[in-house]
UniProtKB/TrEMBL annotation:
This is Proline--tRNA ligase. One of its GO terms (molecular function) is proline-tRNA ligase activity. PROSITE patterns: AA_TRNA_LIGASE_II (PS50862). The lineage of its organism: Bacteria, Bacillati, Bacillota, Bacilli, Bacillales. Consists of three domains: the N-terminal catalytic domain, the editing domain and the C-terminal anticodon-binding domain. It is found in: Cytoplasm. Its EC number is 6.1.1.15. Catalyzes the attachment of proline to tRNA(Pro) in a two-step reaction: proline is first activated by ATP to form Pro-AMP and then transferred to the acceptor end of tRNA(Pro). As ProRS can inadvertently accommodate and process non-cognate amino acids such as alanine and cysteine, to avoid such errors it has two additional distinct editing activities against alanine. One activity is designated as 'pretransfer' editing and involves the tRNA(Pro)-independent hydrolysis of activated Ala-AMP. It comes from Fictibacillus iocasae. The gene is proS. The keyword Ligase applies. Belongs to the class-II aminoacyl-tRNA synthetase family. ProS type 1 subfamily. InterPro entries: aa-tRNA-synt_IIb, aa-tRNA-synth_II, aa-tRNA-synth_II/BPL/LPL, Anticodon-bd, Anticodon-bd_dom_sf, Pro-tRNA-ligase_IIa, Pro-tRNA-synth_IIa_bac-type, Pro-tRNA-Synthase_IIa_type1. Coiled coil: none annotated.
């Protein structure tokens, strides 16, 4: 491709609304342009990279036994009513009406559509399992679109769905898809982790996110310092490995704590450590008050708590609700001498607090020397806290460390969340009706492109890995008006194309500084420059990633390009 003909509108200044490197570089290098908040066009360079991401995704999905198809972006509301998500999905679902006043949605995801197709076409266990996927535009009305392609309202997604007649079949496909995802993100050169995650609005149990480690990530990952354990901090388990402190149990007594309410204030007032305080919080679970206890240096994990309680709706009680149930305001409540009708759930660590401190259920007062079991009753002890850095890894290997991550993929065991309400059934080997068991598997394709760009750049521009680069080689005639340089560059461009390399040829009548700046911006792996020594049959080759450059005879360029590209490909 001759650069004089390429639509590549580069920018010299960083756009004011671009907060992260990938967004800045993709805009400046002419890969994308914003049409509205969270909505982008892919210009020719961006489209080429996007197609390469899709090709890798497509190849690994096909290798995993999934079949590609295409479903409509415009979906009937009736299907979402069947699954129960028309109202529950929330404002992110873009809803609209047609001229006949029928409700539709722009596809945020396709569980309903694919379930309706499969239930109508598959009637026997002999046709299962089945695994299908598509690569398609999705629409979600994000409240705060940000970070360019990382959080948009319109984006490219690969979504796959599997249907099974047994749980064992789903488990097998789930592991196959996890392996395929690992292969995809490894081929893209990303520093990623597969982490245990929450299913969110999709539903189902047992799911993993694929997270690219990045300082601009919006999710926190807990991972082991010595193993491959990793989990979203919302889901990372904390095992009961505590020990009871030595010493006798003392009699509890009230102490004046004045206006101290927070854990830090109470610890300062009583000159004690936060891990000796029992933090008490009142929650309302499906309309029922539940007193929740964690150690003072820990935080309640509402996702874990919701799962433990089996609640559909869970919220921290308001001050008015707390006053009504506990007789006092938040900050002074505790589990001692309360109504037996109030459920009490405690984290494992609370059981091992000896002679602890808690609220006394009256203003300006706390109790010290409180011991669970003796002074307060607990319905059950569960893992209901967030894991902390420095905690033992749940797999027993190393300690927990934290890192931020960008979610690029997610795999779910849906079970019967959609197939049951939508009556996706089949006849088993005994001729009896059974409900299909489902899995679903998503990759944010355009988001993954941005994650690669976020990992691969410097102050000058993008540095694409070879697998995704818009071109293999960038040929530059340093001075296009110089006949010797132009002829040398023309010849090299032709030779490299004939050898099968995808080349960009900067034949523009621009200054050398402009050409080099643009070349750095767009980040093609190799650069061949015909400059002042072109008349002597000498050109310069430069590796974008390392900055290494050297001169060589034109006759050796093909061999050198082959060698350098093999090195970049890790061969």
């Amino acid at each position: 491709m001759k650069q004089s003909q390429l639509f590549m509108p580069t920018l010299r200044e960083v756009p004011s609304d671009a907060d992260i490197k990938s967004h800045q570089m993709l805009l400046r290098a002419g890969f994308i342009r914003q049409n509205a908040a969270g909505i982008y066009s892919f210009l020719p360079l961006g489209k080429k990279v996007l197609q390469k991401v899709e090709a890798i995704v497509r190849e690994e999905m096909n290798n995993a036994g999934s079949q590609e198809m295409m479903m409509p972006a415009l979906q009937l509301a009736d299907l979402w009513e069947e699954s129960g998500r028309w109202q529950s999905y929330g404002p992110e679902l873009m809803r609209l009406k047609d001229r006949h006043d029928r409700d539709f949605a722009l596809g945020a995801t396709h569980e309903e559509v694919i379930t309706s197709i499969i239930r109508d076409e598959i009637k026997s266990y002999k046709k299962l399992p089945l695994n299908v996927y598509q690569i398609q535009t999705k629409f979600r009305d994000e409240k705060r679109p940000r970070f360019g392609l990382l959080r948009g309202r319109e984006f490219i997604m690969k979504d796959a769905y599997s249907f099974h007649h047994t749980q064992e079949s789903l488990d097998h496909t789930y592991e196959t898809m996890k392996s395929a995802y690992s292969a995809i993100f490894s081929r893209l050169g990303l520093n990623f982790r597969s982490v245990l995650a929450d299913s969110g609005s999709i539903g189902g149990k047992d799911n993993h996110e694929f997270m690219v480690l990045s300082e601009i990530g919006e999710d926190w990952i807990a991972y082991s310092s010595e193993s491959d354990f990793a989990a979203n901090i919302e889901m990372a388990p904390v095992h009961d490995t505590y020990t009871m402190p030595e010493g006798e149990e003392l009699s509890f007594e009230p102490v004046d704590t004045g206006d101290a309410r927070t854990i830090a204030e109470v610890a300062a007032k009583l000159e004690c450590s936060e891990d000796t305080i029992i933090k008490s919080l009142l929650f309302i679970a499906d309309g029922v008050p539940v007193l929740v206890l964690v150690r003072g240096d820990h935080e309640v994990n509402e996702i874990k708590l919701k799962n433990v309680l089996g609640a559909d709706d869970l919220a921290l009680a308001s001050e008015q609700e707390t006053l009504k149930v506990m007789g006092t305001a938040p900050g002074t409540i505790g589990p001692v001498n309360i109504s037996s009708e109030i459920r009490v759930i405690a984290d494992h660590a609370v059981k091992y607090v000896k002679n602890g401190i808690c609220g006394a259920n009256e203003e300006s007062t706390h109790l010290k020397n409180v011991n669970m079991g003796r002074d307060a009753s607990v319905e059950r002890y569960e893992d209901i806290r967030f894991i902390k850095e420095g905690d033992p890894s749940p797999d027993g290997k190393g300690i927990i460390q934290f890192a931020k991550g960008i979610e690029v993929g997610h795999v779910f065991k849906l079970g019967k969340v959609y197939s049951e309400p939508m009556k996706a059934e089949f006849l088993d080997e005994n001729g009896k009706n059974q409900t299909m068991i489902m899995g679903c598997y998503g990759i944010g394709v355009s988001r993954t492109l941005a994650a690669v760009a976020e990992e691969n750049n410097d102050e000058k521009g993008l540095i694409w890995p070879l697998a995704l680069a818009p071109f293999d080689v960038h040929v530059i005639a340093v001075n296009s008006k110089n006949t010797e340089q132009a002829e040398a560059a023309d010849a090299l461009y032709s030779q490299l194309k004939e050898a099968g390399y995808d080349c960009l040829y900067d034949d523009r009548p621009e200054r050398a500084g402009v050409k080099f700046a643009d070349a750095d911006l767009i980040g093609v792996p190799l650069r061949v420059m015909a400059g002042k020594k072109a008349g002597e049959g000498i050109v310069e080759l430069k590796v974008r990633k390392t900055g290494e450059s050297y001169e060589l005879p034109i006759s050796e360029v093909l061999q050198a390009v082959k060698k350098e590209l093999q090195l970049l490909a890790g061969k």
